[in-house]
Amino acid sequence: MSKIKVSKIKVIKIWRASSLSFQLSSLVVFAVFLCGLVNPLISYDPVLDVDLSRRDLAPSLSFVMGTDGQGRSVGLRLLKGVEAFFFPGLIAGFFAALIGGGLGAICGYLGGWVGRSIAAILELIDTLPRMVFLVLICTIYPPSILLIAMISCLLFIPSIATVVRRKVESLGAEDYILAHVAHGFHPLKIISYHILWLQCRALLTRQLIFVFSYVLFIETALSYLGDYGVQEPYPSWGNMVAQSRISVAAWPWAIPAVAIIVTIAALLAFGDGIARRDEEVKR
Amino acid sequence: MSDHTTSVVDVRDLVIEFDTPRGRSRVVDEVSFSVSPGEVLGILGESGSGKTMSTQALLGLIDGYPGVMGGQIDLTFQGERHSLLSELPHFLFEKRGQLEKQERGWRKHRFKAMASLWGRGATAIFQNPRRSLDPLMTVGQQVLESITAREAHKPDDTKLNKEAQSIEALEWLERVKMVNPKRVFGSYPHELSGGMCQRAMIAVALACKPSVLIADEPTTGLDATVRAQVVHLLQDLIRDERCAMLYITHDIREMLYLADRVIVMRHGKVLERVSTEDLKDRSSERHPYTRTLLEAAGMIGGDNE
Amino acid sequence: MNQEAASQKSVTSSSLHDHRPAERSPLMTWIGWVVSKLARGLSLLIGSSFIIYTVLRSAPGDMVDLILGLNGTPEMKADLRAEFGLDLSLVEGYLGWASRALTGDLGISITFMPGEPVLELAGPAFLVTLGIAIVSLFMSIAVAYGLAIFLGPPRPRQTLLLGPIQLLNAAPSFVVAICLAKLINELIQFQLAGGGQIPPSWYPIPTYQRLSDSIAPFVFAALSISLGDGLFTDLFNALRSELNNLSNSLFINAVRAKGASVRPHLVKNLIVPTLSIFTARLPLVLSAVVIVEYIFTLDGSGYLLLQAAKNRDVPVVVGVSLFFILAVIVMNLILDLVKALVDPREVAKGE
Ligand SMILES: Nc1ncnc2c1ncn2[C@@H]1O[C@H](COP(=O)(O)OP(=O)(O)OP(=O)(O)O)[C@@H](O)[C@H]1O
Ligand SMILES: [Mg+2]
Q: Distance from first CA to last CA of chain C, Å, rounded?
């Protein structure tokens, strides 16, 4: 009981101490997270939602965000559209952080040619414009959101590995890591616990969030194009924005457009905030 | 003290403060000094005592908030007296019981006021020579820039032409005893050693032919022979151009040789003002801190000498 | 200027003793630097084209069937097999394909524009893309510099003003493009409703099926790329802090103290960081061009790429991808060269 109380107070303290942008962004991130989690519980039939008699209605009490050109509720579709990027984004972010972090830590710990070859691969991947590579992949493989998420994950692994490697290299010189080595801890434990968990978790969280926001970006972009991402009639923020091509009213496409910008902005600010807090705590 | 009417530099009650995480700290506390043409004022003091700050205030180049917060600085250039801090009170205001400064406005005002004085009026040999040279420009060009800036103010018929200017730039590099002036002329600062950068910086400053020269540890990092040459060079400059000089160094022997008067600073305050003659005189009364400095340098109290 | 310095050095260095460690002659340093940069570019080209080829070969099922579908004739299939070296091993196939690509033989389009050589489709289209990318980079730079100089050092009250700029960091360029296009279309609609004249030539929006007969769509495409994807925000933030650090730096103060003009020093010292941002940003900008071209129906290679991909025209998609990679590598080389011309330390530090 008392334990819960203490942690509650701690949370409030952290909240008070953080900046306004961090507070706002964490609210937005929390809301998106909630949407993502409740999404599987909501049943939505995009075909049944069509009702041509209520086309392009302005926002009102019954349709909080209005309706689109086919009379579908924009609010409901916005909510349901979270599904398109939520789990793929989380999975991509998680695996990118896991694999990238692991690789980076190993390279930093061992040093030498492994590190150099990762740097070389990184440069290679940075040479390919990501969008072009994704389109290429989608031409050759049957496109799906999961595939896109997997490729995004792959594209980010080297950059995460580099960031972690730099960090580990700077840590490796510090005495206490050497002390752990001298104590005879298993290298795997030093890498996974002392380096990755204790030192890099904020950094990795930030990278995870970054990959998540990239998946959101690329999913909406490809769905906007219409051939690779989520296809009509299923909702995605991207293909909702594509309503701009046919819609007379502004809200069916402007609301998801704003949602995209606000969500990405919040994600980036949230990730930065976490990294900054971590630095402050360490100091 | 020399009287105010003949001095080129006259600093009274200069106050410099900085905001630090531990609150505001006063790094220069009501410092006063003055220098006449052809005179060398030595400034002695431990590291961090505010020597650099109190001299840089003359050039209006202190960065860091709030910087100069009070006092008077008068600089005489070509018979005209410039009061550099006369407008300062207009930029100060009180906030929560603390004096603050309108930094942007002050900076603009200060730069405008200094524009005609920089270079010919007053210039400096900066303490950190490597960081005081533009990394993307050859040393020769940087010396040349001083000369061009100096010549720009002259009437057209007495101006040096481009060629004469480059020749002069090369001469300056020779005068600061560069081993290979021609090569140095076309070199970039990163290609030079620390001592060479220092000499390049000296050349840049001397080429301005200023009426006030601030020499902030100009010989630190030079070897003994070059050191002596640089000191003589500065001496020549003072004699030929009747330039006033503020000379900062940690080397007391050099100070005694070059300076006419010396002020001793500690914790931002002037502890003592003495003429060099007095300082050389071992029997006279000294402030305890000055004594320690002299002792540390082996000037007094030792068995030899 | 470097050459000048170099020749001066080489003339005098032999005549006088030198107490510093022996150094290579400047010309040799330069040649070594250029060669190493070229080698790096070449290895990047080989590496990334190999990735593309590997992706091609890894296609599920028989790629030829995948591309041609059911209506491919046997000889078309055989041609395609030969083109991509499908019957050979991975490395052999790559070598054959790459050497043919080097001579400009990128195959022929199958479904999108049947029979057209890919090179003739992708080449001209790529010029459009490159133009948009470069214009948008410069646009971004110009506005970012202007604003950074105008605003000066950061002050507390500016946060309100800078909020929207930071928000742009999160705006994907395709969203910016749509908003921009919609806005301008509304404006024109409004004008038309008022005056009832014919639409002006800068009508940017493809929604109304007007093909571009003016440069307006190009300008709008470049504008939305320069604002979107955080390009502008990144540049602005970086330039601003760089500008502030510089104008307070010791050597700029030293320039002031000698009474010379500070501006040339500032400009010169800002070029290198700016170019570094260019280098880092180029792939992202090219990615953005793909989708923005599609929005404004500009017939650049982004549009070509998407249309070909829609028709599963693998040779065209691969050819255009190669162009993109080549562009990144060549542009990086050029940027590195300019950087080295401005900053002699780049060459001195070598690879
Ligand atoms: N921008 C700044 N912000 C805060 N404090 C500063 C700043 N610049 C200088 N100081 C402080 O001002 C004091 C005086 O510095 P100054 O450079 O004048 O010392 P100095 O006497 O020249 O020392 P040295 O002999 O090492 O050159 C120092 O304690 C320094 O910490
Ligand atoms: Mg100093």
A: 22
